[in-house]
């Protein structure tokens, strides 16, 4: 199954927001990072906000953050919502005229079962699963002003000036 562009961009936006959490991300940053049209990303971010996946702030200093914890956002649900509920196959030769094979054909059922298996696999993954340390580190390196991971921040706070100069590890 091939995902539409909207879904692809939606997942990238969510991964970027998860990697930068709790800091805000802007549409311009994501546009530059992935080489995606700002106009198209604005629609994606708006829709993700409507679905409750993002919390958005408009205007100067605005941007977006995750609207819920990354470990509660299921990939399968996001993809279903972005893709819609269309079947892989239409079974209509012309609008309003079904395929002549429809009464005995099992193709649609087989494809629908395959699609459901695809979504069941995606349902096993959360956004947190996608943004493992290497992915998060890559996204943080490529975005300006990205905060260090919380563990590194905590380690920096525990290091005193005397420890910094001692050279011991």
The domain tally reads 1
Net shape? elongated
Q: Tell me the radius of gyration.
A: 21 Å
Q: How would a textbook summarize the main sheet?
A: 2 strands, antiparallel
Question: What is the N-to-C succession of helices and strands?
Answer: HHHEEHEEHHHHH
**What is the CATH class?**
Mainly Alpha
Helix content bin = 40-55%
The beta-strand count equals 4
Look at the helices and sheets and give the structural class.
mainly alpha
User: What's the CATH H-level homologous superfamily?
Assistant: Winged helix-like DNA-binding domain superfamily/Winged helix DNA-binding domain
Strand content: 5-15%
Architecture (CATH level 2) name: Orthogonal Bundle
CATH fold name: Arc Repressor Mutant, subunit A
Could you tell me the mean pLDDT? Answer: 82
If helices are DSSP runs of H or I spanning 4 or more residues, what is the number of helices? 9
């Amino acid at each position: 199954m091939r995902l539409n562009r909207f879904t692809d961009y939606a997942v990238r936006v969510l991964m970027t927001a998860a990697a930068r959490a709790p800091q805000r991300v802007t549409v311009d940053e994501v546009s530059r990072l992935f080489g995606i049209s700002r106009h198209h990303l604005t629609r994606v971010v708006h829709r993700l906000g409507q679905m409750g996946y993002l919390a958005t702030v408009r205007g100067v200093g605005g941007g977006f953050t995750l609207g819920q914890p990354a470990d509660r956002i299921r990939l399968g649900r996001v993809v279903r919502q972005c893709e819609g509920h269309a079947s892989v196959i239409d079974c209509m030769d012309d609008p309003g005229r079904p395929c002549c094979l429809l009464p005995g054909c099992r193709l649609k059922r087989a494809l629908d079962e395959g699609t459901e298996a695809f979504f069941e696999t995606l349902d096993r993954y959360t956004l947190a699963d996608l943004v493992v340390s290497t992915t998060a580190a890559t996204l943080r390196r490529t975005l300006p002003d990205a905060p260090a991971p919380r563990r590194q921040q905590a380690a920096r706070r525990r290091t005193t000036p005397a420890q910094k100069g001692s050279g011991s590890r």
